[in-house]
Amino acid sequence: MPRLFTGIEVPPETGLALRAFRGGLPGARWVEPADYHVTLRFIGDVEGGLADEITEALAEIRPCPPLTLVLDALAVFGGEKPHALFARVVPDPTLAELQAEQERILRGLGVAPDTRRFTPHVTLARLNRSARPEGVAAYLAVQPVFSRVSFTAERVALYSARDSVGGGPYVVEAAYPLSEGR
């Protein structure tokens, strides 16, 4: 498991709804709908022994009810140097607590802290250097109104990604149900 991260899977029917936004953006490398997810914690490249420890430690996530996540808008990371188009997840306190708990668990194992602010989202496309702010603005301007999309998350997944590829395909290495009946 070279490159690991935790996240919430996006169900296929939600992926179909998001698929409607594919295309028409120069410089975009579109994420396959089967790889859509909400990243909770990027871990990075780890050795096999630490990967096993992470897999075991994440099983200790406190139970919580299934989460209803709501996607409410398209947005872009990067400002003047856009690098990702995403569907925004409406902030949710339970989701933030789940992310913070994973951060604590991973730090307890010696994993370096994640310095980025947690911004829940579903990445739809990665943008290369040819993606200009003007082109991204034009793309967003012609998109239909984003109808809110919701789905229920019942588990957290530990994903692996191919070494140095990024953007998938991703493999679920372990899954952790959220509810107490696990």
From TrEMBL:
The lineage of its organism: Bacteria, Pseudomonadati, Pseudomonadota, Alphaproteobacteria, Hyphomicrobiales. Keywords: Hydrolase, Ligase. A motif (HXTX 2) lies at residues 121-124. Transmembrane segments: none annotated. A motif (HXTX 1) lies at residues 37-40. Its EC number is 3.1.4.58. One of its GO terms (molecular function) is 2',3'-cyclic-nucleotide 3'-phosphodiesterase activity. It is an enzyme of class 3 (hydrolase). It comes from Methylobacterium aquaticum. PANTHER family: RNA 2',3'-CYCLIC PHOSPHODIESTERASE. The active site is at residues 37, 121. It catalyses: a 3'-end 2',3'-cyclophospho-ribonucleotide-RNA + H2O = a 3'-end 2'-phospho-ribonucleotide-RNA + H(+). This is RNA 2',3'-cyclic phosphodiesterase. It comes from the Bacteria.
